[in-house]
């Protein structure tokens, strides 16, 4: 699965609501894609956002032991729809700002971030995975810690871990 | 420390005696450096090999409780000198095979692989660190497990983890 052995390159950038993931996207555009700009027709940038699975799949009961009402589920779905739109539109802006004419595909998955990211990379036969070091998302980050190192262990293609200057200790 | 904001790029590739580290070097040459070939005068590839610290620093006693004799220390030093030569010459061949005209610097450090790699990257103000996923070296690998994930956590610049197809499970 060498990039140089194929006509077409697929680069997956896992984006979330963090500034770091936008920094990783920007780094990728400026350091991996811009330098092969002349071949950019053969490169597809896949922006991947992973939503958590629907709450009903987590647990049908809230902390008080009651089933989630349909209105709560609908509110959450609405919240994630808006979040996805906002992240993808921010990512699109980063791409436009780079002034690199590149094919961009948007994908939205749902489930465990590591499983969805690694599964998508494998399914696409991607040549590279790029993500921030502290993703995935503020909730996941708080609950599960960093997803990027788990992905680095599992994913088969080369993976770039990019840190936001803010996250450099 | 953005690559695009500086005239000169420094890319550190941590090499060891594993095939995987040569694969990582080759990947870097073909996917990061080759595409910016026209600017390769401003890019320096730093090949970094880390030897373990001298055995006297580990422990002055061998398993039987005797001090290492000077001959044993000399033999080990000789062994590592040959190993470094062999790894660096293999790395040089990989560079030559890529037919990319790039400035190559060789550095040999001694000590804990993670500390030396991260320290060198910081000292050089490197723009990127590239290494295999299973390094560092067959001894360290067996004793300490993977160094690359520790480096990914510590290093400030973007880091690429490249897997050898053999190590893909």
When the domains of chain A are counted, the total is 1
Strand order of the main beta sheet of chain A, please? 3-2-1-4-5
Number of strands of chain A: 5
**Approximately how much beta-strand content do the residues of chain A carry?**
15-25%
**What kind of oligomer do you see?**
homodimer
CATH topology title of chain A:
Rossmann fold
Task: Please mark out the parts of chain A with pLDDT under 50 across 5 or more consecutive residues, or reply none.
Answer: 1-5, 138-144
Protein name (chains A, B): UspA domain-containing protein
InterPro entries (chains A, B): Rossmann-like_a/b/a_fold (IPR014729), Universal_stress_UspA (IPR006015), UspA (IPR006016)
Organism (chains A, B): Chenopodium quinoa (Quinoa)
Question: Which key phrases capture this entry?
Answer:
homodimer; 169 residues; alpha/beta; Rossmann fold; five-stranded parallel β-sheet; 43% helix; globular; disordered N terminus
